[in-house]
Design brief:
alpha/beta; 189 residues; 19% strand; 34% helix
Amino acid sequence: MPSQLFLVRHGETEWSLLGRHTSRTDLALTAQGERDAGRLAPKLAPVTFSHVFSSPRLRARRTCELAGLGSSAVVEPDLAEWEYGDYEGLLATEIQGRQPGWSIYRDGCPGGESPEAVSSRADRLIARLRALEGNIALFSHGHMGRVIAARWIALPVTGAACFSLSPASLSILGWNQTRPVIAQWNALP
């Protein structure tokens, strides 16, 4: 089993700052996002990583680079953000106007991924990660990061709604003996 998973959400983008749902739209980090991502480097530098994985999206890969781990990163498609489909680029209030009471974790996204599909993707990734040894760095996104955390501790995907995950935050998923735990959550640089 891995020692720990260091889960990093990408730095701020123009759309994350505004609250727009961003999955496949490949946005660059804002200047603040770049600064915050760079502030992760001293927190990650003392850790020896056996593996570093990044979402294929530019914002996650750039965060990985600025955090000092880009040269050893492998792109991992299962770390990509929840596919928002018809809700791409929309604010939560705009989605609620179309579908009152909407929750991504319960309802998914028309033209995008269902909660079951995202949960399966997270489970597949976690199974592969648990077969690896050593500390592992993961550079991902807001909704996907929450789902990974929920599934890591065996919560249903709806449990991910209980987590908040800020841009350029660092969370650590680890173990208490043989039980998966969240050792640190949403720490900012």
